[in-house]
From TrEMBL, chain A:
Domain of life according to the entry: Eukaryota
Biological-process GO terms, alphabetical: endonucleolytic cleavage in ITS1 to separate SSU-rRNA from 5.8S rRNA and LSU-rRNA from tricistronic rRNA transcript (SSU-rRNA, 5.8S rRNA, LSU-rRNA); tRNA 5'-leader removal
Matches recorded under InterPro entries: RNase_P_Rpp40
Pfam families hit by this protein: Ribonuc_P_40
Cellular component GO terms, alphabetical: multimeric ribonuclease P complex; ribonuclease MRP complex
An MF annotation (GO) of this entry: ribonuclease P activity
Biological source species: Monopterus albus (Swamp eel)
Signal peptide limits: none
Name of protein: Uncharacterized protein
TrEMBL record, chain B:
Organism: Monopterus albus
Pfam families assigned: RNase_P_Rpp14
Biological process annotations from GO: tRNA 5'-leader removal
PANTHER family: RIBONUCLEASE P PROTEIN SUBUNIT P14
Domain of life: Eukaryota
Keywords on record: tRNA processing
InterPro entries: Pop5/Rpp14/Rnp2-like, Rnp2-like_sf
Protein name in UniProt: Uncharacterized protein
GO cellular component: a single term: multimeric ribonuclease P complex
């Protein structure tokens, strides 16, 4: 029997095309549904320095906290639930845990706690859960999803006690944890932070000027070629190759133009969808003024090891765990949105 | 008729879902050598990978087209591009490459994706060191 070597695991690319003026455009909901964003990269063609408005938005991205060795049962602390979770908009994600080998935890702004556990931990915890969708042959990973705002999970209740005892006495799940709060920052998180070793971090902004950049014709370029070109720009890969070159035959898709001076701005950290949304609005304002080039591209990468992506759908890593979207905005308020996922993921919204 | 409506048309919501349509796959790999002082140029690295393809998949394998998009000589880290059909062949030959000029070596595959863009935003690279922390308490 021969094995088919040509097959590759599933990947999905969703291409949306619409206008911000269309009432039915869903960009804001799509942006909000990717809860845990790791990196945003903006490409401004024919621009030599970051426009001040854009710069101030980038520098006002919410800061986030890293708590070292946080016992997960602390997230069930009554005071924390009342001051932060019930009010909405707490984002939490375990840090430096890999979803293909470790236990991962996520807390979404709507007050839901997601635990992605290996089989042993799941059985020790003793709380209801489901086998992961991405188990292969044997059930080796389980997902526990708990709505902390549900009345059955009120502090003191039976389900609450069961989960608390499971996390505190049986599983002893401890992990470095990233935490962010919107709006208002850390005031309501202080009591929790003060009990552990913590640090505050600001998202890191960096910019890079690109000269003589070849750019494809955006109207005729197919989505995969466009994303490849954008990836080459972000990774500093030269597209100036000959088809006969030994090392690389990567070229900018034809027809192409040359942009004399472009700017790539990136911001890294744990970024909130609300901040990304503000950035989109600011880019739209930027595009309203007459420019040499009438487009801007923005790419948002999600966390690879988040237990959920695209809303609250289960997410996993098979080879890459990529979940990102790339928004191409034009001055006439039309946009093109490319949402991409790897094998262990659901279809983007 | 259609031309007159062009403005209207462009505002209409359109959604296309492409499944497994990526023509290429991209790999981020790192070469680990027994003797860490050894340096390879980009051309030498590509030639080395081709010899690996040849020893595992023969002459046909050696003819598999792939690109070395980027290479960092200091960290021996490279970005490769290969047609999706050739991914398994390239990956398997990288795995089985065990010696470079009679010293032990191994390729670490750091990331594989059908999107080059995904390789520029890997959250596993997020480093939150003490140095960048603005406040801390015990």
């Amino acid at each position: 029997m021969s094995v088919d070597l040509d097959q590759t695991p599933r990947s999905l690319l969703v291409c949306d095309q619409s206008s911000f003026l269309d009432e039915k455009n869903r960009v804001s909901s799509q942006v909000e549904q990717l809860h845990f964003n790791y990196k945003v990269s903006v490409l401004l063609p024919e621009c030599s320095s970051t426009p001040s408005h854009l710069d101030s938005v980038l520098n006002s991205f919410s800061s986030f906290y890293l708590i070292r060795k946080l016992p997960i049962y602390e997230l069930l602390d009554k005071h924390f639930l009342e001051t932060s979770v019930y009010q909405g908009s707490v984002y939490g994600l375990s840090y430096r845990t890999r979803i293909d080998e470790d236990n991962c935890v996520a807390l979404t702004p709507d007050g839901r706690l997601f635990l992605s556990l290996d089989k042993d931990s799941f059985q020790v915890l003793g709380v209801e859960g489901k086998p992961s969708r991405f188990n292969h042959r044997t059930n080796s990973r389980f997902v526990v999803s708990i709505d902390l705002t549900d009345s059955s999970m009120a502090p003191g209740g039976r389900s609450y006690q069961r989960l608390l005892t499971g996390l505190r006495s049986r599983l002893h799940l401890k992990t470095d944890f990233l935490l962010s709060h919107h709006p208002g920052g850390g005031a309501s998180l202080q009591p929790l932070l003060s009990r552990y070793d913590w640090s505050e971090h600001r998202p890191e902004v960096s910019s890079h000027t690109l000269t003589h950049l070849s750019s494809p014709d955006l109207q005729s370029c197919d989505p995969h070629s466009f994303l490849e070109w954008l990836g080459a720009v972000d990774a500093n890969i030269s597209c100036e190759n000959l088809s006969s070159s030994f090392l690389s035959s990567l070229v900018c898709p034809e027809p192409k133009t040359t942009l004399s001076r472009s700017l790539r701005v990136t911001i890294c950290g744990m970024l909130l969808p609300q901040d990304v949304h503000r950035l989109i609005q600011e880019i739209r304002c930027y595009l309203e003024q007459p420019r040499l080039e009438s487009w801007v591209s923005m790419t948002v990468h999600g966390f690879v090891d988040s237990p959920i992506s695209w809303g609250v759908h289960e997410h996993g890593v098979l080879r890459g765990g990529e979940n990102f979207y790339s928004l191409l905005l034009f001055h006439d308020h039309t946009y093109r949105l490319h949402l991409a996922t790897g094998a262990h993921d659901t279809c983007p919204p | 008729m259609r031309r007159d409506d062009k403005k209207e048309e462009s505002a209409v919501f359109q959604r296309v879902v492409l499944k497994n349509a990526s023509p290429y796959h991209y790999m981020k790999v790192c070469l680990v050598l027994g003797d860490e002082s050894t340096r390879l140029s980009a051309v030498e690295l590509k030639h080395f990978i081709i010899t690996g393809l040849k020893s595992l998949h023969g002459e046909v394998g050696a003819a598999l087209p792939f690109d070395l998009l980027k290479y960092d000589e200091d960290t021996l880290t490279a970005l490769l591009r290969v047609h999706s059909r050739g991914l398994v062949k390239l990956w398997s030959s990288l795995t089985l490459l065990g010696s470079y000029q009679s010293q032990a070596c191994a390729f670490r595959v750091l990331q594989v994706s059908p999107f080059l863009l995904a390789l520029t935003g890997n959250s596993r690279e997020l480093q939150l060191d003490e140095g960048s922390a603005s406040s801390s308490s015990g």
